[in-house]
Amino acid sequence: MQAFEFYSPTKIIFGPGTEQQVGTQAAAWGASKVLVVYGGQSAVRSGLLDRVLASLQQCGLAYETLGGVHPNPRLSLVREGLKKALDFGADFLLAVGGGSVIDTAKAIADGAANPELDIWDDIWLRKVPLEKALPVGVILTIPAAGSESSESSVLTKDDTLEKRGFSSSFQRPRFAIMNPELTFTLPSYQVSCGIVDIMMHTMDRYFNPVTTNELTDEIALGLLRTVVRNGRQALEQPGDYQAMSELMWAGSLSHNGLTGLGGPLDFATHQLGHELSARFDAAHGATLAAMWGSWARYCMDTNPARFARFGQQVWGLDAAGKTEQEQALAAIEATEDYFRSIGMPTCLSELLGAAQSAQVLEMLTVGCTFHGQRTIGSFRILGHEDILAIYNLANH
Question: What does DSSP assign to residue 146?
Fold first, then answer.
């Protein structure tokens, strides 16, 4: 094992009916005025929001609500939420939803605790170190992003379509209530996007240049096998508690740091996908599926043995009589086959309806490098020409 630090303080309350505990959990963290953040109307129609507000009220907590969070959460709604939080005097943020809702709540919590700072220019662009944030709690409804137990969040700036991530230990939720029954009415496409996101959070950690973290790798590979198996079951049998419970727990573990201990994060596929979701408002998980195979083919020769092991351990591929390169390619193809089997795209035309022009690919590349200010990846360091080549590989 290599040196590492591991900090994952989020309290997990897992199981049927656990959303009824939200008032007690928030009060235990000193909440008195709670801003409840949620997405569309599903939380209202299902009665979940009413149950949440009733639990808060029963514990003597005042609340205001902020709805309307969309996938690929926008800075404009965060600014609206910040004003509401400050006017209300909120001292606690409660996210009821999936990753976009949680990320929005985290950003509001950052800004509300630091009203003298601009949420984008100062905090998100890291001009001023974040030293405090309001506490955040979560009721998870979508197994996907893992934001309920991570230190990370992602926002898109409306006018420039820049999509940027921000990480800080102050953003880790104090608690995450996880009732798999709340996922039973999710559309199959949303479930599939979540499956890919969970897998990619793990694969973006497994594919790194360090190969001596045996236990970390085994945890990552085991999590991937679990997601592949239960992902199929969840799509074939909607409302299967066992399958959705496994996916929900895997989503949290995939992004709390456990599956990458001792190695640098890669996350190149995430960065490639972020540009697509920002520019085209495409679903995050779908952008990852569309780009991973091209990233993998471009980077495969960096360490084909890593891909070969992935193919053997996750997909059960037979290595007999094959070179490492052949095994690596077979592992990539097996992954893409799985993505297709759950209705996910594996190239840009499947994601966006058509291949893109050279000008669009250049625009995506420039955005991905932050206008030449960064490289991406750790498994293989990728600069402008590499990134453009990967977008071209995916452009069919």
Answer: -
| DSSP label of 379 | S
In angstroms, rounded to a whole number, what is the distance separating the alpha carbons of residues 16 and 159?
Answer: 41
Beta bridge partners of 190: none
Integer Cα distance of 268 and 157 in angstroms? 21
Exposure b/e, 263-279, CB count within 10 A at least 16 = b: bebbbbbbbbbbbbbbb
pLDDT digits 0-9 by tens, 249-274: 999 999 999 999 999 999 999 999 99
Provide DSSP, 313-331.
Answer: HHH----TT--HHHHHHHH
C-alpha atoms less than 13 angstroms from C-alpha of 331 in its C-beta half-sphere: 27
224 in Cβ contact with 181 (< 8 Å): no
The structure's pTM equals 0.96
SS3 46: coil
Which ranges of the chain would DSSP assign to H, the alpha helix? 22-28, 42-45, 48-58, 75-88, 99-113, 188-206, 214-236, 241-254, 268-280, 284-299, 304-315, 324-341, 348-352, 358-368, 384-394
Q: What is the pLDDT of residues 85-133, one digit of tens each?
A: 999 999 999 999 999 999 999 999 999 999 999 999 999 999 999 999 9
- For the chain, the first-to-last Cα distance in angstroms comes to 41
